[in-house]
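Checklist before submission:
- one chain only
- standard amino acids only
- sequence pasted in full

Submission:
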Amino acid sequence: MRNRGAAVIVDMDQVAVIKRTRNGAEYYVFPGGGMEDGESPEQATIREVFEELGVHIKTKESLGTVQFNGTQHYFIAEIIGGVFGTGAGEEFEADRNRGTYESMWMPINQLLSVDVRPIEIAEKLFKYNGGKEHAPDKTN
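Returned file contents:
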């Protein structure tokens, strides 16, 4: 069991996801990963997103937690620097034998029609977005 931090990064009507192909299954996860000793969930999220996506983010607010092999913390976040898709974390090492990782943008209106894990967070984002074409501005 390991606690995890993850980011829900929305840009217009799309959300950043990692497409996973492993053991014949294809599914999508929100970028993030395990917390290291002494890290807060926000710090782990910021570090892991840079490793996986190559972007610097700022967490804005909690979207919720999910209990699965520890506590998974999900944060609405925004990109503040870097280049999307240039992540070079250990996930991308060929000898890891844990399937493939592909960073991509997915239209929010497609979230509930594919295997997004955890589905609880995909559903919250869909509701948070209110079915609108653009994500609400939560900076006020």
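Reviewer check: Confidence is low (pLDDT under 50) at residues 132-140.
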